[in-house]
Design goal:
The structure is a single chain. By secondary structure, the protein is mostly helical. It folds into two domains: 84 residues, Hypothetical protein rpa1041 (Alpha-Beta Plaits, 2-Layer Sandwich), CATH 3.30.70; 37 residues. Helix content is 64%, strand content 11%. The protein is built from four helices and three strands, in the order E-H-E-E-H-H-H. It has a three-stranded antiparallel β-sheet with strand order 1-3-2. Helix 1 crosses helix 2 and helix 3 packs across helix 4. It starts with a strand and ends with a helix. Keywords: Membrane, Transmembrane, Transmembrane helix. InterPro entries: DUF6164. It comes from Arenimonas caeni. This is Transmembrane protein.
């Protein structure tokens, strides 16, 4: 019976490629399901055989721990070098979207606080 190894929802493309290559290198037979049209399923990478699932999960756990430490180190380096994306950089990159977001937040705050302001009279 197939065993889900990795849910592909919100998984970056490079990580999915690395997992596919890792499974191939480990000799694990696997297959992939694509995301559903309506977004109910994000797709996944499955082990075709139960016997290989435990081996694959152990190797994936080690890989994910290594990847996490590598990504944290890259993020720390970006922050140290001043290349890390910030809220201000996002605002400069898409000013209309950022302004619309700020306006939406202010409108929601006004809508939520309006009943309390009217009750105080």
């Amino acid at each position: 019976m197939p065993v889900l190894l990795l849910n592909l929802r919100d998984v970056p493309g490079d990580e999915a490629e690395e997992v596919r290559a890792l499974l191939d290198a480990e000799g694990v037979e696997w297959y992939e399901t694509k995301p559903s049209l309506w977004g109910v399923s994000g797709g996944g990478i499955w082990a075709a055989h139960d016997e290989q699932a435990d081996q694959a999960r152990e190797r994936l756990a080690r890989y994910q721990a290594e990847r996490a430490s590598r990504m944290r180190a890259e993020r720390a380096l970006e922050i140290a070098e001043g290349r890390a994306p910030s809220a201000w950089a996002a605002f400069r990159e898409r000013p209309l979207q950022a302004a619309a977001t700020v306006l939406g937040i202010l409108m929601m705050l006004a809508l939520v606080t309006l009943p309390f302001l009217l009750l105080g009279r």
